[in-house]
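#struct-pred

JT: dropping the chains for the assembly here, can someone run the whole complex?
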Amino acid sequence: MNMELSRRGFLKAAGVGVAGSTLGAFGFPELEAAEAAAIRPFKLTNTMETRNTCPYCSVACGIIMYSKGDLRKGETAEIVHIEGDADHPTNRGTLCPKGAALKDFVKAETRLKTPMMRKPGSDKFERVSWEQALDRIARLMKDDRDANFIATNQAGVPVNRWTTVGFLAASATTNETAYLTYKVVRSTGIVAFDNQARV
Amino acid sequence: MTNSWTDIRNTDLVVIMGGNAAEAHPCGFKWVTEAKANRGAKLIVVDPRFTRSASVSDFYAPIRQGTDIAFLLGLINYCILNDKIQWQYVKAFTNVAYIVKEGFAYNDGLFTGYDESKRDYDRSTWEYEIGPDGFAVVDDTLQNPRCVWNLLKAHVATYTPEMVERICGTPKDKFLKVAEMVSECSSPTKTMTSMYALGWTQHSKGSQNIRAMAMLQLLLGNIGVRGGGMNALRGHSNIQGLTDIGLMSNLLPGYLNIPVEREADFTTYMSSRAFKPLRPNQTSYWQNYKKFFVSFQKAMWGDAATVQNDFAYQYLPKLDVPAYDVLRTFEMMHQGKVNGYFCQGFNPLLAFPNRQKITESLSKLKWLVTMDPLETETARFWENHGEYNNVNTASIQTEVIQLPTTCFAEEDGALVNSGRWLQWHWAGGTPPGEAKHDTWIMAQIHLRLRALYEKEGGPFPDPMLNLTWNYKDRNEPSAEELARELNGYAVETLYDPADATKVVLEKGKQVVNFSVLRDDGTTACGCWIFSGCFNEAGNNMARRDNSDPDDTGAYPNWTFSWPLNRRILYNRASADLQGNPWDPSRKLIAWDGTKWAGYDVPDIAPNAKPDTVGPFIMNQEGVSRLFARGLMRDGPFPVHYEPFEAPIANVIAPKIRGNPVARIFQSDVAQFATSDEFPYAATSYRLTEHFHYWTKHNRVNATLQPEFFVEISEQLAAEKGIAHGGWVRVWSKRGEVKAKAVVTKRIKPLMCDGKPVHVVGIPLHWGFTGAARKGWGPNSLTPFVGDANIETPEYKAFLVNIEPTTAPVAV
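RK: done, full complex below.
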């Protein structure tokens, strides 16, 4: 590869504002236009910046997500780039091989997009609506709780425990999700309640 | 972490043992590099493998997995014998001088009170002598043979450098070099930090691994100081937060406890939670337990939690076993005693031990609900993937409902990092397809259940029907509303107890922090330790002032650190009995004659006199515990126990297998192997290019580390005829995997008790969904046994066999 050329090309592209006007001043306006057309526009132009933290390990590096469209204005927002947040005291802009590839998680082909149901014995998932899925879940829970809820022990002490259904919570969810999950699960009497902290 | 990631820059010596921060926490490890470059700090790595952390260390010592306690007690023994103790700190801030009850003893690997049939101890002798004044008896001269110092000295005497070498396989000269470097940190102006992770927790004695290092750190005077501490490098982004909020079988938010059956009423429940100080003038902060408990009940059930009904005490379930932890739950499932199960962002088919048992258990469920942003193996446990998931689909009668959730990029809220910082983040992208927030899903489940109970009735619906649900949009509580509830608010207008005309806080306002919570039902607070995170000053978790006065590493105005925005726990211990910093260059707080002040929020009452009130305010003693009383199930001191599957017998107590009080289910006993059948010592770990089973869904990470492999030494490869890059079959008494072999110099055989021990390393990132090649995880092989105190499965030390094989059949 011709390193000379490629380096010169890079320098020209990087300094296009100055170089362009210089070329123009020297009397080569068509060259200036050709130069500008050959350069890919800066991909983060006109994107929205949103502060977030990396969802993987507990270093919790600061990240900046760039999106086309502004969620806060009610627009559809498509994340086009994620990078380290240089203002963050812990990572100061650095990311590891996982954090640096976060956009690939957000846009992974195996992201789930619709509720699915697998019938007993079936070899496939079938699409269901949210209403169908949630109604079914509530029905299954209610029927099992009604049948198996333990209100008192043999000594007559209220124990209000439901042991035949369990709930595993996720340690990548927010505190706020965790707290709402806690409220909903605990209020049913479920005791087989745990999260990744145990493993 | 007692400290924070950014505080690691202040250390003189980093000990990475039970973890591999350079690999698993790369951007946090940067602070080790900073300390090395700017302070001349040293890094010691002790690990069975020459890891990425080891490759940049100043000193590396090999150790056999599962023998950390022998190594650490060996270090304590060395410090005692060479008088490398921070004596002023130890005498003032630990229970070294406390007298232990007559009758307590330790012999042949067991403490007093062991009952083999129950696999449990009667711990009544593991207590202090209590004097006529009701306080613990102490002997400041340390002459009493029953004082903690003399008991500790005798307890660790077994762990000589020769014994450490025999058990751990660490050559004596290497152990002594580590001991020498560590012991130098007994100087009040030299500090060591411990960075550990699942390499210490995932053992049948994981809690005691950590205790052993904590004891060493106390003897060196390294707790509560800048650059010191016990720093658990937590695995997931919010595993700290989920634990803090108590999403565990036996917890309420803020480390309060779910009642057990014998606590039939609230009075009985509170009777064992008075937390009376065990020494004069001590804080014993848990004396406020009732305020936190009642405020939680008010947050949950509002007006339905009244003085008359003991603040809805009976709305909480009561446990008949210590906990329905995941191992117990899957054992119950295996017995057909569980009908339905929810997995919210959790992939137990690859995360829980003995995969065959997990598959069989899930197959016995009537229904399974999964909630995840990505495909998981668990949601598809019924799907046949040839060798990779060889199930009989038609015979599995489990109904599975898979719900798509949003990911981090699409939601607002806070995560708690390892250093206890609650950092708010904002949604920036639109969720794909019909994916929904977990909060919406949980709300929908609750509202539907509520409607069904309202319509049809059923057993004890009160806790559901009366659950506080005053959200603007009932269908989707906002992150802000939930954060405000976690912080807490005044249910009634609060008046000053000293002056009833003076209003402290008006009804409905956010409490400033947990110091104003009350036990009479006039305050509500979802999680007391988070209180202060979202008060009338606003969302403190969203603060982004990254200034760091005098470069202490505290960043006091960056987000919010629990508790009370305190950055270093036990920071009162950074100063001596006059209140002056042990090391003026590491000042955190100091006593100015009337109050404590400095760079951090004092971890003590601001006016608590330095020579009177001890720094360990959560303990009834006011000091820290070298002797843990009866608070650990497996002993007041750590003891070396072998893993349940070990290549050698326990040298110090040959009759004891594993941890003698770890719970084992009868159905698993037959599946524990001996080294005759399975000669090689296996361990599991993470790689820097992957995060558990998520990143195999990313093309970038799936390209960086595309394929499952195991690591073995050149010696084992030669013995077994295994080629570098060739296929091997690795099997345990519970299952098998096939992998490419990485033959490496980074693993070397260890000589333990005269026998060569080969280590097999098994990373954990592959399954049968995603963009990477199909593979297995170590959980196909690992035993179904957990830590004696908290039931964390023993993933880090187990036995396998290995042989060359051919590639798996493609599906």
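JT: nice. The longest strand of chain B covers residues 736-744. The radius of gyration of chain B is 27 Å.
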